[in-house]
Amino acid sequence: MKNYLLFFLLCLSIPSYSQSYTFSHFLAEYKPLNPDSTISINKGVLWDDDTTFSFPIGFTFHFINQDYTQMKILLGNALFGSRYTSFAPCAAVVMQDRADSGKPSLSPIGYQLTGDSGSRILKVQWQNAGFLYDTASFANFQAWFYEGSNKIEARYGKSHVEGRLFQTQHGGPQVGILAVKDTGTDSFRVLLNGNPDSPYAKGINDNGPYSLTAMPRDSMVYVFEYSTVSGISLAKQNELFSFYPNPVANVLHINCSTKGTLTVRNITGEIIYSGEINGFKNIDVNNYPKGIYFISVNTTNGQEVRKLVVE
User: Fold this and answer.
1) In the chain, count of helices (H) and strands (E)?
2) Distance of CA 107 to CAs 90, 139, 156, 195, Å?
3) Domains of the chain
4) What pLDDT, in 10s, does the model give residues 7-34?
5) What residues have CB less than 8 Å from 35, skipping those under 6 apart?
6) Full-prediction pTM beyond 0.85?
7) How many whole angstroms separate alpha carbon 96 and alpha carbon 77?
8) How far apart are CA 265 and CA 288, in angstroms?
């Protein structure tokens, strides 16, 4: 029974900072911001790689190793501070406004501040973003910044972008967290790599490409959780499956890109649920007693056990 209670997390540590981030992903309906309560960032001005817009965050946000109250937008990046320290929900050097020079913007960038003081969320939205050399491609995405937890989410809506436009080795956007020293070298990095349906995060010491293979699908959400404890995991790597919400009260949503066996056990090791999974599966937990459970998925790629809280 003890084997079922082990909770493994593949991790990387970053010795140069006392902060770290864990990565996870799930699917949730993409909801464009309400235009009546959205504040324009570009204010109708056309934008490209020479255009930067500044605006207030609305609260103090702790990013990597500093507190910030202002943010800048450059292409598909949210910049912090005077140095190149950024979160990129969709980094592409050829991203630009879809409107022609001399005309009003067709690619509005805006933001909303939602929630109560202490738990507010800054939601930044790129709408109908275009790409140089291609009039058919477009992208819709958001970046959410959480007060208090300092969590960051990248959320994706309907998009169509040719892979060649990203100009990355893997043919997809760069997504993640980056800080660059004055010398031009990376000082902190958590960038996603691989299939956008099941990506894994790569740290500063990892070699190879740092990009997805394609634009993330509509309704994809990437989550970067912040931790102040040195040496805790930088990123959950090569996850066999993902699930949300956690804690859960009603329905649990599970995603596994590889066919396998799904098992749910209670704290004593008793099997509560067992069945096959190959893609997305929903489990009704309304009749589960409140407490701690363990989800295990066994595939040809290995086995993984994750902790679940039912409330």
Assistant:
1) 0, 20
2) 15, 9, 15, 27
3) 12-239 (no CATH), 243-310 (2.60.40.3080)
4) 222 222 333 333 578 888 989 999 999 9
5) none
6) no
7) 12
8) 11
